[in-house]
Fold this protein.
Amino acid sequence: MKLAFSTLGVPGLPIADVVRLAATHGYHGVELRAHPEEPVHPGIAPGERADVASEFKAGGVEILGIAGYARVAAPGDDEPVLTQVRELLDLAHDLGAPFVRVFPGGGTGQRPEDADATAARRLGTAAEYAADLGVRILLETHDSHRTGADATRVLGAVGHRHVGALWDVMHTWLGGEQPQETYAALAPYLGYVQVKDIASADDTIPLPLGSGVLPLTECVEVLSRHGWDGWLCWEYEKRWYEAAAPLPGLLGPAREHLVRLLSDSA
């Protein structure tokens, strides 16, 4: 498996510094948070996109994916959501990133079956555009569709190889799903896995990997046992928790922890 981290952990950090952090600490790739407050988002010009791609290439670091904020199950008209997804796909294509992350984002007043149908319809439409660009859309286990079982209700209805799943281990755990259950549900669709750690279900301030309660050992064991060889991406949510320790000083120990888990599970 290859290791990456998300720029959610280093809010606003210039791309050159992001690449330097990854290379210095032995990470193979980076997940780029796509938001107007970040250096990379759908609003940047073609020249800026080329510069970002060149910076990563020169540093020997891959762009794993573009973490967008489109909510594909959200109530309302389809076209604004589809436009947002297409813009993310264009950005990923221009940067040479294989994946785009989207959220479910179903509304609290929606019936689950309506949220499923809305998400499947939009993802099915966007899948053809994604296929033309050679980029894969990944539905994250999050909010209204927190577990692997939730996500597969949508992904099974889409049935397109350019639409898959992003396994966020915190949300599936909070949803009461065991790693083996999540893997069994998501295996046909799995793009990559976001790892993290927290103190408890009631205290989700990000912690250094291995110092909290999330079942990271079990997750890595399940993936290894089934021969999965994709990406593990550390999503450290510093942007949402100012009190969390700065990410740069944690990257080295986190890599060592993940390598140890991989070695022990081999």
About this structure: Residues 179 and 218 are 6 Å apart (CA to CA).
